Amino acid sequence: MADDAGFSNSSTGSAPIWDWAGENARRWASQADRLDAQLAPVSEILFRSAALYSGATVLDIGCGRGATTREAAGIVGLAGTVVGLDISDALLSEARTAATDIANIEFVLADAQTYSFEPQQFEIAISRFGVMFFADSVAAFKNLHGAMRSGGRLFAAVWQPRDRSELMDAPLQLGARIIAEHGHVVELPAANGGPFSLGEFETIERVLGAAGWSNITATPHELSFYNGGPGTVDDAVVLALTIGPLRLLLNELPAEVEAAVRAALVEDFTKRHDGTGVVLRGSIFIVSATA
Question: Which CATH class is domain 7-290?
Fold first, then answer.
């Protein structure tokens, strides 16, 4: 339904393409250091929840450049092993380079939905925003379930719906308004699509339950993020324009529209900068379940 700004917020229009094996991976890689810094509060909560221990066998789902994989490897030590799984060859190439001297890590280029895991291989599976993009979520979590030992545990950070996180929603809404002011009709992606597909507990419970998991919980956390990590207003603006829902709106629009969006972001982010970085609130769940 179109609103007075001239854009619509619809779940029925064309869905954004989250191409993690292609252009999205390239854009992510270009901002990976800033994204890792931005997501540090999530990693802290995820690892506190997962309570990894020396000697554990761990799967890191959607590991990207391997920041969480390396952290897990340091905790489990040489008595344990960590497998980082991702569909992006470009990101895994950087992950392997960063982990050259770490003996207890293996990186695998594969889709967790279809990969032939060794049965009952892992005691713990972790994921920092790597489980929301499956083509068939039930099939993916069922496949992951088969890779876990009996009693094995899953711990995954997922976003709550986009409109609960100004980190994701505020730049998008601002950009959409500016784009509409320039005469372009904008259809916003659904607040519960793409990265937010597991944003409701009912969905989490239904999907994981159908895949065979039990003891399913979703613990909510509301966090303050530095957008792009500690840095300047321009650092945060570059990140907002490079990856995420706003980037999808700007694709194929004229350069002058993106320039106007950039100017609006600079004005907004300047007000949010606390001297260390641009502060935006975000809402996540830490999902846990037992195989």
Answer: alpha beta
